[in-house]
Amino acid sequence: MSNVRQLRDKQPENEKITINLGFVDLGRIDLLVQEGFYSNRSDLIRTAIRNQLDSHTEVVSRSLERHTMELGLRDYSVADLEAIRDAGEMLHVKVVGLARIDPDVTPELARQTIGSITVLGALQASAAIKKALADRIG
Questions:
Q1: Pfam families, from UniProt (predicted)?
Q2: Alpha helices, DSSP H only, in 1-100?
Q3: What string of pLDDT tens digits covers the 138 residues of the chain?
Q4: Predicted TM-score of the model (pTM)
Q5: What is the dihedral of CA 46, 11, 66, 135, to 10 degrees?
Q6: Is 15 in contact with 121 (CB distance < 8 Å)?
């Protein structure tokens, strides 16, 4: 099962976060936007975050290897989970980024095939799947 795609290749969705900034920092951001360095506040914040993450690429890579996690977007379809079930195996999801469980996956199939879920980022699954796997989501 190798349907992992890098998030930067195509960002299908974004996760909204909220941050608190001091008035001086906010004013400095607005000044840079006004001067045309960035199109808006979000543009500056996204750029700053990417630059910071890029400066830690090696650390992130070593950590991913150590924890055997997948980086990017990872989809789990009915066919994927049925193949795991038919092979008599259990899946341990470890993703840094976005893990998506197809809406067609039943809670029963998910419980039969998914032993644990660890996602640093976001997990997209139906409420029924999340409820069925509540004791396995860490």
A1: RHH_8 (PF17723)
A2: 23-34, 41-55, 57-67, 78-86
A3: 555 555 555 555 678 889 999 999 999 999 999 999 999 999 999 999 999 999 998 888 877 666 678 889 999 999 999 998 998 889 999 999 999 999 999 999 999 999 999 999 999 999 999 999 999 998
A4: 0.61
A5: 110
A6: yes
> Minimal CA–CA distance to 112: which of 138, 86, 79?
86
How far is residue 46's CA from residue 51's CA, in Å, rounded to a whole number? 9
* Residue 103 one-letter amino acid: P
Distance CA 88, CA 110 (A): 14
Tokens of 3: 């349907």
Residue 134: DSSP 8-state: G
Contact between 44 and 29 under an 8 Å Cβ cutoff? The reply is: yes
